[in-house]
Amino acid sequence: MNGGIENRISVLFVCLGNICRSPIAEGAFRAAALQSGLDCHVDSAGTAAYHLGSPPDRRAVAVSRTHGIEIGAQIARQIVHDDFFRFTHIIAMDPANLSAIKARAPRDGPACIAMLMDAVKGRAGEAVADPYHGNADDFAATFGVISEGVDALVARFVRDGVNLRL
Ligand code: 4NP
Questions:
Q1: 112 is catalytic
Q2: Of 23, 64, 113, 164, which one has the greatest count of Cβ atoms within 10 A?
Q3: Which of 64, 26, 5 is nearest to 153 (CA)?
Q4: Which of 24, 44, 50 most suits a substitution to test ligand 1, by most atoms within 8 Å of the C-beta?
Q5: Catalytic residue flag (residue 21)
Q6: DSSP code string of 89-137
Q7: Does 15 participate in catalysis according to the annotation?
């Protein structure tokens, strides 16, 4: 990942449970990248272990489906040490998860660690709010915010490639 063999863009989206926000981000980013012809590897994970092995929340699956994005086959997992070396970019959904990721990051790990909304001009530092205790409207709002974030992120990757820093 230092300009050597590993120069393919690989993005890991991370939230708390890996059943709501990061699965939507994974699906939406994959779709936007495909549309832009961006070659990349995409995955998602949680900082917590609450939902290991579970599919995404049915409300996340439903809202994604209304936008033509299928995320139902994803399986929740927790971020692991290897992720810091396998991914060029680790993208958190909110400041709490950003802190949790950074606390586990190896000192000289090569991955760029940032938040999704850092990719959007004028919205750096903004959280993608946790919709878990909300309703379908909250999930629709979450999808909208994530969609803005991933579209901006894809555009930044198209411009800067694997060396993108947020
Ligand atoms: P996510 O949402 O981090 O977007 O997947 C949550 C899912 C589960 C919980 C919290 C947030 N939970 O407390 O179980």
A1: no
A2: 23
A3: 26
A4: 50
A5: yes
A6: EEEESSHHHHHHHHHHS-TT--SEEEEGGGGSTT-TT------TTS-HH
A7: yes
